[in-house]
Write a structure and sequence with these properties.
Elements: H1 3-11, H2 18-29, H3 35-48, H4 52-63, E1 78-82, H5 90-100, E2 105-109, H6 119-123, H7 135-145, E3 147-151, H8 158-168, H9 176-190, E4 194-201, H10 210-226, E5 230-237, E6 245-246, H11 248-259, H12 265-281, H13 286-298, H14 301-312, H15 318-321, E7 331-336, E8 341-346, H16 348-358, E9 374-377, E10 384-385, E11 390-396, H17 402-411, E12 413-416, E13 426-430
Parallel strand pairs: 1-4, 2-3, 4-5
Antiparallel strand pairs: 5-13, 6-9, 7-11, 8-10, 8-12, 9-11
The structure holds uracil.
Uracil binds near residues 178 and 182.
GO molecular function: 1,4-alpha-oligoglucan phosphorylase activity; thymidine phosphorylase activity
Protein name: Pyrimidine-nucleoside phosphorylase
Subunit structure: Homodimer.
């Protein structure tokens, strides 16, 4: 294969064969094709796009570029992916619900970067909890409890890691076939039969409009279907943070309240909706699936799975029964309402950036974070508030980042005289 010929082919808008994509992507992963040629090719893809077949082949080539998890012996496996949001602790609630429903979650999760959180960081709010399990233990735990969560192995879809880094510095990140193939390559390599996607749309999300979100969801569902998996996507609002807490320990607390059936409505409804998708993918009637999913939050069965899971990976299960003992930074500050009326907007991106400023997130991979800091929404969009009343409460450590966080939150808050129209959380479904 002649690389300049392949670049020219894409530059002129033609479709690559699978063998050509292997030559480009595997050649690059092995270090045989240089950055400058792949940079040119990525830009050609950015400008010319890819057909659905080509996107699916690119995804498979990336998925097969490294280790692939074999979950073949586990019953009814499900993976879940969120395209990233603020206050999104859904995985902490949904995965033990799925386990309680008789499905198996043997999943790799990520850490947070910039304003978006990550499940592994949240779980590390439990002292001693580890995201590293040898493969045999990972599979055994998934079989016994129905739930095992580990950090991303370095050998999973290495082609994606390398391509993503290059996209980041060549202005080719925001390209639909490249995003869809990047996300799905990791999901395919992770081995689950069913994948539930939560595609976030709005101010705090990668996809700003419903139209873009739908296109991404369709592309990912199409890739999964072509690869023989069951993939279902739900499009959900991410203009405002999900639930009332943002920041690692605070989010774990809120997840536990939700597992007890005492969570905020938006978060509870989203977890139920995603669980219904997972059960429906295994052929269950939707009305029955919904009733069964809700029951796991009432009867304590999801909470019990979560406690067992935390303990199995080295955390203190007693904290699940006493979430108030999770470390939350002792400093408190509040953002007050500038007027009487209704909260119109609490911008998710501002809240995410505020948590980052307080030390609860990282700008670069590998940086340590403070699990105890965060932001609590005392009022959510649509709720009434009086002038001078607290809308947001910050938990900070010795004032670190407090003024920056406060300025971001004030900037992201709008209060209006009339009640805003209620915003639906679940915007669409694609399967
Ligand atoms: N997340 C990914 O994993 N890849 C992308 O390209 C974008 C978001």
């Amino acid at each position: 294969l002649n690389i300049p010929d392949l670049i020219r082919k894409k530059r002129d808008g033609a479709e690559h064969s699978r063998a050509e994509l292997e030559g480009l992507v595997l050649g690059y992963t092995r270090g045989e094709v240089p950055d400058y040629q792949i940079s040119a090719w990525l830009m050609a893809v950015y400008l010319r796009g890819m057909t659905p077949r080509e996107t699916a082949d690119l995804t498979l080539v990336m998925a097969e570029s490294g280790d692939q998890m074999n979950l073949g012996n586990l019953p009814r496996t499900v993976d879940k992916h969120s395209t990233g949001g603020v206050g999104d602790k859904t995985s902490l609630i949904l995965t033990p619900m799925l386990a309680a429903l008789g499905l198996t979650v043997a999943k790799m999760s990520g850490r947070g970067l910039a304003h978006t959180g990550g499940t592994i960081d949240k779980l590390e709010s439990f002292p001693g909890w580890t995201p590293e399990l040898p493969e045999e233990r990972f599979l055994a735990q998934a079989r016994e409890i129905g739930l095992a969560l580990v950090g991303q192995s370095r050998d999973l879809a290495p082609a994606d890691g390398k391509l993503y880094a290059l996209r980041d510095v060549t202005a080719t990140v925001d390209c639909l076939p490249l995003i869809a193939s990047s996300i799905m390559s990791k999901k395919l390599a992770s081995g689950a039969h069913t994948v539930i996607l939560d595609v976030k749309v709005g101010a705090g999300a990668f996809m700003r409009t419903l139209e873009d979100g739908r296109a991404l969801a369709r592309a990912m569902v199409d890739i999964g279907t072509r690869a023989g998996r069951q993939v279902r996507a739900v499009l959900t609002d991410m203009d405002a943070p999900l639930g009332r807490m943002a920041g690692n320990s605070l989010e774990v607390r809120e997840a536990i309240y939700t597992l007890r059936g005492e969570g905020p409505e938006d978060l509870t409804e989203l977890c139920v909706a995603l669980a219904v998708e997972a059960l429906a993918a295994y052929g269950e009637d939707e009305a029955q699936a919904e009733a069964r999913a809700r029951a796991t939050l009432r009867d304590g069965s999801a909470l019990e799975r979560f406690r067992a899971f935390v303990a199995a990976q080295g955390g203190d299960g007693a904290l699940v029964d006493h979430p108030e003992r999770l470390d939350v930074a002792p400093g408190r500050a509040e953002v007050l309402s500038p007027a009487s009326g209704f909260v119109e907007r609490i911008d998710a991106l501002s809240v995410g950036r505020a948590v980052l400023a307080l030390g609860g997130g990282r700008e670069r991979k590998g940086e340590a974070i403070d699990h105890g800091v965060g932001v609590e929404l005392l009022r959510k969009p649509g709720e009434a508030v009086s002038a001078g009343e607290a809308v947001l409460r910050l938990s900070h450590r010795n004032g670190r980042g407090l003024e920056t966080a406060r300025a971001l939150l004030e900037e992201g808050l709008t209060v209006t005289a009339t009640a805003p129209a209620p915003q639906p959380l679940i915007l669409d479904r694609v399967n």
